[in-house]
Amino acid sequence: MEIVQIVGFGLIAAVLILVVKEQKPLYAFGIAAFAGISLFLLVIGKIDAVIAVLENLSERAGVPSIYMATILKIIGIAYIAEFGAQIVRDTGQESIAVKIEFAGKVLILVMAVPIISVIVDAVMNLLPTGG
Amino acid sequence: MSMDVSAIFQIAGIGIIVAMIHTVLKQMGKEDMAHWVTLIGFVVVLFMVIRMLNELFQEIKTIFLFQ
User: Fold this and answer.
1) I need a labelling partner for A98 at 20 to 30 A (CA). Which of A43, A59, A106, A130 fits?
2) Chain A residues touching B56 at Cβ < 8 A
3) Count of structural domains within chain B
């Protein structure tokens, strides 16, 4: 019953933030960031097992490992960007949060370019020549 | 499984104690000292948060980025 622990953890963090916020908002930010990181760390450990299974499956299916690596990297970038943007959004700096998300999207696009070019190559091979 | 509730209580405790010290110093008329106390307390908290953030990013790197 880990979900009970997680919910309890979140509730405790929320109550503490309420207590501290009226005295010093600065420390409320610290607690929020800390709680977010702890919960994230907890869940990341679980994702590890799922990714091992995915890698095993892709290996057996004969998918080139470069595609799998790229997809995992994209997921990692998405996680980090989302996390950072939310922490910054908590502090009230919406504009910086939006820029972090934008940077994440651009980096994901850059990683996806090789895959897109491979797809375009495959489509060009399917097309009849000279038609 | 690193559920350290104590760290969160620690940060909240630092916040409350610093708020108390801030109030006392303000009553004594030492405004500048009070601000320094707040700043140093925040640096301590930020240090804890950043250490944990480093741990998180290392974990993400080893899982997703193959490094």
Assistant:
1) A43
2) 37, 40-41, 44, 83
3) 1
